Automatic annotation (TrEMBL):
The keyword Nucleus is annotated on this UniProt entry: no
Keywords from the named record: Kinase, Transferase
Species: Saccharopolyspora rectivirgula
PANTHER family: GLUCOKINASE, ROK (REPRESSOR, ORF, KINASE) FAMILY
Taxonomic lineage of the native organism: Bacteria, Bacillati, Actinomycetota, Actinomycetes, Pseudonocardiales
GO MF annotation list: kinase activity
The protein, known as: Glucokinase
């Protein structure tokens, strides 16, 4: 059975035909329009371009936003023009195939737990580090969504009371210290605090510095950039300790764009996690691994979920 997984992001819509082994057979992409109706049309057109060439049984959408418990409605998507929209039903009517929605981090966790770095794990957590932090949890092979479909918001665990302001309205959230955005802010603070240090980052125009540039500078031995990476590693470890205290996972998969530089921080993060977790030295530790699927995890996981629900004969997908 072939299904299509769609990653619906703020800048692009990517759709891939995925087989039962997670292999991507073909991909199409389009720019993300501004309005909800235009977005529905863009998704439908992108999917049709694939469905016309392959016998597709269902479609799964990985969405960066809050999805209803039945995975039919997008309640809120901060970077998309969807507010309480029955996206699954609208697209199913256009495409004449079953459509399932899933939060993008949940979809990525499914890809990793079924076919990736957490394959076979009964309890697995995914921490997707990019502009912010996305989180997901798999318990006994099933995605844990909470009572209303929005759990777990790991990126907004408060690690530093009274710390950096977060767009969510709180201060000191995990993602404000461990993300691509946080890496830039930390490097900027370090440049100001250590004017005596020579750093290539100092030559970059204020406001133009990126996390990728910080990571590249750290690769070359830049002292400020390496301090910033060490800070990210510390906060990643502290956050993982909190996740382990609550969920006690077998495996934690680190995903997201920052993972391209995982060799610069993951070893140190593991050490911080091992030292900070409750009962340090007297309990098994989760294996902390980089995800297998990279930026394709959401598409693969959404396709896997769509296939599973069709095979299970879910009523709303019949």
């Amino acid at each position: 059975m072939l299904t299509i997984g769609v990653d619906v992001g703020g800048t692009s819509v990517r759709a891939s035909v995925v087989d039962a082994h997670g292999r991507i057979l073909d991909t199409r992409r389009a720019r993300t329009p501004r309005t909800g109706q235009e977005l529905n049309s863009a998704i439908a057109d992108t999917v049709r371009a694939l469905a016309d060439r392959y016998p597709v049984a269902a479609v799964g959408l990985a969405v960066a936003g809050f999805v209803s418990e039945d995975r039919r409605i997008v309640r809120f998507a901060p970077h998309l023009d969807w507010r309480h929209v029955p996206v699954a039903d609208e697209l199913a009517a256009r495409l004449d195939v079953p459509v399932l929605l899933e939060h993008d981090a949940n979809a990525a966790a499914v890809a990793e737990q079924r076919l990736g770095a957490a394959a076979g794990a009964k309890v697995a957590a995914l921490v997707a580090i990019g502009t912010g932090i996305g989180g997901a949890l798999v318990l006994n092979g099933e995605v844990f969504r909470g009572a209303y479909g929005v759990a777990p918001e790991l990126g907004h665990l408060r690690l530093v009371p009274g710390g950096r302001q977060c767009p969510c309205g709180k201060h000191g959230c995990w993602e404000r210290y461990c993300s691509g955005t946080a890496l830039v802010e930390t490097a900027t603070e370090l440049l100001a605090a250590h004017p005596e240090e020579t750093s290539v980052l100092a030559a970059i125009e204020p406001g133009k510095l990126t996390g990728v540039q910080v990571a590249q500078a750290a690769e070359t031995g830049d002292s400020i950039a390496q301090l910033a990476m060490a800070d990210l590693a510390k906060w990643l470890g502290e956050g993982l300790a909190l996740v382990a205290d609550v969920y006690d996972p077998e495996v934690v998969v680190i995903a997201g764009g920052v993972c391209e530089s995982a060799h610069l921080f993951l070893g140190s993060a593991r050490e911080h996690y091992a030292a900070a977790v409750t009962g340090a030295g007297h309990r098994p530790l989760a294996r902390v691994r980089v995800g297998r699927w990279g930026d394709k995890a959401g598409m693969v996981g959404a396709a896997v979920l769509a296939r599973e629900h069709v095979l299970a004969g879910e009523p709303h997908l019949a």
